[in-house]
């Protein structure tokens, strides 16, 4: 009786584990598939510019530890190398399907800093945005807009802010980066164009 009871208990545990595994496997698999599809659809890779970079090649050590050697010839010709690149810089790169060609290169290190423009209301002062390491964003001399965070998503910059006096609701706006170099940052969406100079 004891032996058969023990065997029945083990069989029940194995059966439940098997069923549980199957039940969990489907959502996990679906989650992995969905995630894989999302990553492949986005094709953005984050990492550090490596020492093997050259005039038309970007060596990138990704956050996952892979080392990629990417052709940037097409990106250069299309004006899609934003902010340049130097060894040790933090990069966000939009890749082609086989991960050999960079279609868009954004230098996140160059993106960091204080960016200002003449106040559109009167032009007598400067307003702007400070983009800090770790995805932190802050307003520069703006009383109505409080910037909170920034990040690169799908090769575009996403900025989260709060408009004071407008219900204090958070807004998330996504922009295409048109220009980025040591002194200039220009980004736009369908409604707005922001042209900044670096505050020194």
Automatic annotation (TrEMBL):
<dbReference type="Pfam" id="PF12702">
    <property type="entry name" value="Lipocalin_3"/>
</dbReference>
<protein>
    <recommendedName>
        <fullName>Lipocalin-like domain-containing protein</fullName>
    </recommendedName>
</protein>
<feature type="domain" description="Lipocalin-like">
    <location>
        <begin position="108"/>
        <end position="198"/>
    </location>
</feature>
<dbReference type="InterPro" id="IPR024311">
    <property type="entry name" value="Lipocalin-like"/>
</dbReference>
